[in-house]
Amino acid sequence: MIEMQDIWKTYPDGTxxxxxxxxxxxxxxxxxxxxxxxxxxxxxxxxxYREERPTKGHIFVNGFNLERLKxxxxxxxxxxxxxxxxDFKLLPKxxxxxxxxxxxxxxxAPKKLIKKRTLDVLELVRLRGxxxxxxxxxxxxxxxxxxxxxxxxxxxxxxIADEPTGNLDPDTSWEIMKILEEINFRGATIVMATHNREIxxxxxxxxxxxxxxxxxxxxxxxxxxxxx
Length: 228
Hints:
Largest sheet: 6 strands, mixed
Oligomer: single chain
Mean pLDDT: 94
Helix content: 25-40%
Distance between the termini: 31 Å
Low-confidence stretches: none
């Protein structure tokens, strides 16, 4: 599903964000990516959805070698990768329904399918009753749930969640995690970067710890392991 082979990422200023990382994530896994700030977690995540390219090595996602992928093929690969951001990245002038439907419109899905899938995922995140609202009228937790709905509406096989609970209170964070667990239960592979010790230690999944650009731990049902 996701495989990195001897991945190095060196930025123009000489910073080695990743140094020889090799890891494999199988279909339907739920993986936490943890580690200190500046350790290379964000680079690790961005490489998976081709926001960044490696300096050296190969990355395979759903059978595609992302490092050798031609520019015109990138949108097709990204259709199977949903991304959830810490800061939501919703379109402020669109309603809840329109924000979610837009993700299907850009891939030119049929109108009937757009309506059905949009309503289905809004039901899943428990916000069908607010589909005519605008992002500014929603709480932070509600906005994150819309961001999740948008990320999954095209039924991607891989979900990349970059600090999805980072700006939320504890109760809302648990609501978000229950939704992510349900998405994983339905078959999606989830890779989630987080600093939330309580969530990692309570909802025990595979843990990849990134330190100084290296995978320092790879544990099944692992713990957070840091005193942030």
